[in-house]
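ugh finaly. both done.
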Amino acid sequence: MPITSELRDDGIRVVTMEHPPVNALTVQGWFDVAAALDEASADMDTKVVLLRAEGRGFNAGVDIKEMQHTSGFDALIGANKGCYAAFKAVYECSVPVIAAVNGFCVGGGVGLVGNADCIVASDDAYFGVPEVNQGALGAATHMARLVPPHMLRTLYFTARTIKAVDLVQFGSVLETVPREELMDAALRVATDIASKDTRVIRAAKEALNGIDPVDVNKSYRFEQGFTFELNLAGVADELRDEFAGTEKAKGSK
């Protein structure tokens, strides 16, 4: 199972993504993330969620190979709906979501983390939205929650990445620690939250979402419309084919 969920005795629910080699999730994987967060929302024994990953990095976004090996637009529509559901489930989870980010966090990974309530990262972690390289748009909504406006535009247009250690100064990443200490650091925050009255924390989560200046669900859905346009124009297919070919060539070396 690429997505697992385990509720600890202290009320911390650990949701883990593990889909080798790079945690690029399939359509079903994104819906499974959404289901795990929805389960946490409905379970009153869950006091806080810790979202983490096994492997080389936290998340590499959508599985491009699945998309290119599927005829028609079914995989594209599935990925868009799956990502929307997963990001929305993180944001609307009734309890706080702590993201423990190791290594790379790009594309859809930024969508998950940008909608989380707290981010702890390994000191080798980095974030990026390389969508323009694959002829798509999206997750700018969520990157905007991590960096200031002009930094967002530079990162988005250039497809550059930014280190987690550099995000600490913006306050979007709480702290960075050596990778082997990441789980302990995230659990310290989770334990602090779990020690509070969960009725109050759930009310606080709803209240904070209610005063957000940007409707992240509607904003991301707006971005997705441009992805559809680029696909209908044939631009996205062309760039995804180039990407898939490059990745295949790397694997053959």
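ok and the 2nd:
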Amino acid sequence: MRRSGRPRQQILSMEKNILNSMAWNLTVPTPYVFLVRFAKAAGSDKELENMIFFFAELALMEYGLVTVRPSLVAASAVYAARCTLKRSPIWTETLKHHTGFAEPQLLEPAKMLVMAHAAAPDSKLKAIYKKYSCEQYGRVSLRAPAVAAPQRLA
């Protein structure tokens, strides 16, 4: 037996009216929302911040990360950036607390980001690589890809 879509439409319409009357704006969460908070938790300086955003933009091009939660992509960008810049410790209790992710959860997505960084100079799609090779972004894309934690990302 098939139900009529009418009650559903009425409920959705009423929800829309309520949200509009409260002046709410609903959006889809993107990694950027999480990046700002996670970068702050990482105690980022400008170089680390640029590297984090470089990895986050590389993630947009990675098919394997399309279905990954935006918060996990953002945390993985922080992890990959800290590995690339040889920050120690790579993952802290503070980062674990603020991101909600333990280091083992970040290894696969971070590995994908590091591999994308390694492949970027020879890629056909170089816009992100070129953008982050400019002085304005600290030339972070020109840094050697992460090998600081071979047991983790290798």
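summary for the 2nd one i guess: The chain is about 60% helix and 0% strand.
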